[in-house]
């Protein structure tokens, strides 16, 4: 069989620019390359080359009256909550205007004030739900805004107008609350059983939360706030729309909590209830503290309602309404 001769191999000439590039690379003296490396400043670290830094997040500046490192502030066993110069503006209006509070550990602390006084805004900033425009909030010595992870572990919260996952059953809701706090399944089951028995909900855990009454809803929400065993409970209007029986049950649980060393901070419009259960109070109006301290010192021998009206200016003469005395019929 005849073999076909292979065609002659022709030399392929590279383009001039490629040849020049190769020639320049090969002919460059090693010493000159070394000089270039030495003379070029290294402005980027190895870590930045491996993983470029993320762009800095734009954060709203917070004015602080006493900037300190949270690590330099030791946890205090005597003060559960310390608020210094807390301020919040909505537009040009000051909802909270330089509030100072100090809540002793193990106390039952009440905050009272008229509608729009700044109670809910204050408690929202205390618990990390609303960023303040200025001031400091410390929970057992931990700055809530500089060290939120550790500070919030110590707090249980019942916010105002709380919206629950009401398509869950009571048992599912408590499990969800415990899982969010990092508790394991066995711990959640045990604590959910204890809390539901304490609040009288053990026979309602199989029902949807949406089917609960107002009192039952408040009780399951407080149970969810307590399931991770916080040291501080912050409750915004916990007894609003709650019947007297449910109120008594909740108060019994909260008293046991404070007797064991826990601290409760609550806001309420019920003067009689606040005076009956709290050992220290703060009266707030127009975003400022009018009086604050142990109950006996704030009341000065009067009832809380009388003292509140005196400080908040609730007494006003009603004049120029004589037409109300002339009935239309």
From TrEMBL:
Transmembrane segments: none
Protein name, UniProt field: ATP-binding cassette domain-containing protein
One MF term in the entry's GO annotations: ATP hydrolysis activity
Keywords: Antibiotic resistance, ATP-binding, Nucleotide-binding, Transport
Gene3D superfamilies according to UniProt: P-loop containing nucleotide triphosphate hydrolases (3.40.50.300)
InterPro entries xref list: AAA+_ATPase (IPR003593), ABC_transporter-like_ATP-bd (IPR003439), ABC_transporter_ATP-binding (IPR050763), P-loop_NTPase (IPR027417)
UniProt membrane topology term: Peripheral membrane protein
Family annotation (SUPFAM superfamilies): P-loop containing nucleoside triphosphate hydrolases
Location(s) in or outside the cell: Cell membrane
ATP-binding recorded as keyword: yes
One GO term of the biological process aspect: response to antibiotic
Top-level division of the source organism's lineage: Bacteria
Domain ABC transporter: 81-311
Disordered: annotated span: 42-74
A GO CC term assigned to this protein in UniProt: plasma membrane
Pfam family, one: ABC_tran
